[in-house]
Every structure is written in C-alpha cells, then in structure tokens.
Amino acid sequence: MHIVDRRRFLFSSAALAAAAATPLSSALARARESAAPPLVDVAWLKPRLGQGGLRILAATPMDLYRRAHLPDSVFVDFGKWRVTKKGIPALLPDVPVLEKLLGGLGVARENHVVIVPAGFSAGDVGVATRIYWTLKTLGHEKVSVLDGGLRGWAADRGNPLSNTPVQPKTATYKANFTNQWLADAKMVHEAMNTGDVPLIDNRTYDEFVGMTPAGGSVLRSGTIPKALLVPQHWFVDPQTGRFLDKAKLAAIHRQMGAKEEGKAITFCNTGHRASLGWFVRSELLGWPTRMYDGSMAEWTRLKPEENFPVERKIRL
Known about the structure:
The chain is α/β, with parallel strands linked by helices. It is 33% helix and 13% strand.
C-alpha cells in the first residue's frame, strides 16, 4: 500500500472541491453495538478497519480515488447505480443488475457496508446517500455513511490513506427488495391531489420557483403543485462536509413547513439530491419518508401534461 502525502492530498482535494441516557441492559447494549447506525464518524470507523465483515465503498470521483482513499476501500462508479428506462434518466436499476454490481464490489448480504463520499459538498454527500437508499431498498440491513467523508478522514494525520486501487474478491449478492422507501408517480399524484402527504422539493430555490430553464433531465421548469421547498445543501456544513446536528435538521424542516407528522415524499430532478433529503428525514430524524425515484425527470415527461402539472411561481 502506497502512503499518501497528507498535506499535498488535502491541498489538491480542496482545489478539486472548490467543489444522560438511561442505562441499557447488557443484552440491549450488545444489540445496539451490533446494529449499523446510518451515520458513522471517523472515531467509529478507525478501530474497525480491517474487520472481515466490513466493506468500504469509496463514492468519490475516480481521479480523487486514484490520489487517495481509505485502505481497503473499493471504488464505486456512481453512473452504474442509475440507468435510463423508457427515456427517463437516472432511475433505480433492476434488481439483477444491482445484485451483479454489488457482487462485483465484493459485497454480500451479511456485510456491513460503509459508504465514503468525498465530503466537500452536499452534492457529493448525496452520491453516498443515493447508494445508501439503493442498498436499503434492496433489503440490506447493515449500511452506513461516513460523516465528513474522505475529507474528514484525511484531516487527521493519524488516519491512513492509500493510493493503491483495490480489486475486490467477487461475492454472491442476493437482494430482498422492499418498496418501503420508494415512491412512484402514482403516489406523488395522489399526494398532490389530496394534500395528505407532504411533497418536499430538495432542489434550489431557483429550480423550485421556475427560474432555472428546463433542459437536460427536466423538460418543464418549476415544481410539483403543493410542494414545500427544503434545499438539500442546507443539511451539510460546507466547511466540514458533515451533517448538521439533528436539532438543526429538524428545525429546518419545521420552519419550512415540512413537519414530522405523518409521511412525506422527497424529490428533486433525478433522485440524487432527494436521497439526501430522504436520508435526513428517514434515517437521522426517524420521520416516515419515501423518495420519488423518477422525480422531475419523470414527472415532466408524463402525459397528459395537465394531469401532471408543474407550477412556476415566477414568470418573466
């Protein structure tokens, strides 16, 4: 394993980025210890490196992976985790495709998977949360995201880094698909009509009000009627790449009108940023939430358009 010069790595990566609880019974304590928390930090991960059941996935750009990654971490190509179906981009692949992908990464159902984003922006943290959401949808029980990602890991001189690519030993992966966290267009349409389930737009304000021109993945500007805006980039501290604490995450949602009562559905353009919104609500705050996989990329392609309206709050 080649050792990486930490100061040079941090400098070049920054340039690249410019992107009192009740005592538990012993049995319950052991159960909690064996459970996989959705978010782990460097202090949690460091003593567990090298454990046989741990699989670390580097959800970073390839050029960054080639320069530095956690020891034993396997590069994951984010493009393979989303596919085009019937002209709709960036959708969840079919289960057999994902089983083959995970097996090729050396992941088996019993492994604890830790996903490591780059950690320089909410957008790259969203790559990790989208992979996390996919694994949960496949019924994978033990999966976590490293808070702060590679950036946070590399900030501590005592943490090892490698620039030697890892070639994993293939495994057999068998999914147990669940739609517990998945929303489709029918669910979104019903939520829009009834108002019973909040629709949460995790994009930017410009996209939400319709100032961003349509094009690329989205064919009509604006948002789904009755949707609430909760931008995903509010959830991550840009100085550290770490999530805000739970009290602040909850306050953001409440003050934007997206309260915890009942269920909710997050969406964005292609289910990338919405996965970050879903992760915060479902996994960190424990509020029942689904993610609309197709998001605006699908919604703006559905016919007839009057049945799948898009609201522009600002028109010029």
